[in-house]
Amino acid sequence: MEILKAKNLSKQFGKFKAVDNVSLSLQEGEILGLLGPNGAGKTTTIQMLLGVLTPSKGEVFYFGKNLKNHREEILEEVNFSSTYTNLPWDLTVWENLHFISYLYQIENRKKRVEEMLELFKLKELQKHPIKELSAGQVTRLNVAKAFINFPKVLLLDEPTASLDPDVAGYIREFILEERKKFKVSIVFTSHNMAEVEELCDRVIFINRGKIVADDTPENLAKTIEVCHIELLVKQKEKLISYCKNNQLNFRQEGKHIIVDVKEKLIAEFLRNLTANAIEYDEISIEKPTLEDYFIQNAPKL
Length: 301
Ligand code: ADP
Ligand code: MG
Prior knowledge:
Strand order of the largest sheet: 6-7-8-3-9-10
Helix content: 25-40%
CATH class of the largest domain: Alpha Beta
Bound molecules: adenosine-5'-diphosphate, magnesium ion
């Protein structure tokens, strides 16, 4: 079932078109990544999906119903996290979560708030006013708020911004676990390619307000032919001059040299190493990633 559908969304700020004819759809239990450089229009798109910004053109549907006419009913099932919303800075962490759970009329409010405090490691901070929290702690509180009402649809705008890598990893695992348990459908924005690759079933690349690609991370990476071959060689200089003579991109990482080779030319590359008496002690071949797709397409995007 189509959970969310946006049809030809555009947003104009004066003469500037921040979002330009964006259409997207989200299936039940799907995690969709909105990926793009700063200023691409991700936040503006999310805010139109949430109904906090009115589109200049286009429409948003949840569960087949138009957001314009079924706002209240829809927003009971939707929640969000955003780094840009203003939190009530004087309220404590506990008061904040309690207030949100009250707004959503959650049963067993106290228990649910306790649960969220535990899950997001906010217990020790529960009596602190939000204005005293670090950026990372605010991000954790925002994600806790987003999940507190067991939403059917979640719009997460950079939910791992300013988190330490281990906490970001914990949040990613949490998101995947919730999806498995509750089939929650998620739109997720990020500019961290590896994160999007790990989490998302499908990715939409957005640049200058326009969708430039919409596919699975695997399919996008597959359009890139270049693999990375990491070698530990006895004589570095020999390999480096071979790469230079054959116009192969390479970089050094500690003792290793990483060479970019087109997938179908790997066999030939390995034969040539032997023919040129370039010996290696270790070799590993890395498939292209979403990041490679982005780098290769960046000039066009
Ligand atoms: P992203 O989230 O992808 O970084 P945004 O959606 O925040 O991008 O912004 C897209 C573009 O729209 C940017 O150039 C931004 O400066 C512009 N923009 C966003 N909000 C406003 C606004 N309220 N008024 C004018 N311009 C805006
Ligand atoms: Mg943004």
